[in-house]
Amino acid sequence: MFISMRVRGALPRSDPFLRRARGQGAHRSSSLKLRALLGTSLLVLGCSAVRAEDDNSSDNLTEVVVNATRWDTKLQDVPLHTTIISKEDIEYSPAPTVDQLLRQVPGLLIPGAPFYTTDPTGNNITFRGLSKKVLVLVDGVPIIDPFYTTIQWFRVPLSDIDRVEIVRGGGSAAWGNLAVGGVINIITSRPQNDDGEASFTGASMGTYRASINKDEVINDYLSIALSADTFQSDGYDTNPRAYRQAFWPGAGDSSATGQNVRIGAYFQPTADLSGFFRAGYHVQKQDIGGYAYGANDQKGPDFQGGLTETFDASSHLTATLYGQNVNFTKYNGAGCYVATPYACGAFVSGSGASVAQQTGQVLQYATSYDQNPYLERGASLIYTHGFHGILADAQFGTDYRYISGEDSQQTFRTPTLALPQVLRVQRTNYGAGDQAFYAVFSQIKLRPIDPVEITIAAREDRYQSSNGTATQTDYSNVATPVAGLPQGGAVPSSSKTRFDPSVSLRYQETQNLSFRGSVYEAFRAPGLNNLFRSFGSSSITIANPLLGPETLIGKELGLDWRSDRFSFGATLFQEDVTNVVATYQITPGSPIPAQVLAICGAAYTGVANVFCPGTVSFNTNGQDERSNGVELDAEWQIARHLNLATYLTGTQAYYTSNTTGEPNDTQLPLIPRYVAGGNLTWDALENWTQFVDIRYSSSMTLSNINASPLFRQGGYAVADLSSTYRFGHGFAASVAVQNIFDKSYTDTSASVPQGVTVALPRTISVTLHQKF
Question: In 3-state terms, what secondary structure has residue 32?
Answer without folding.
Answer: helix
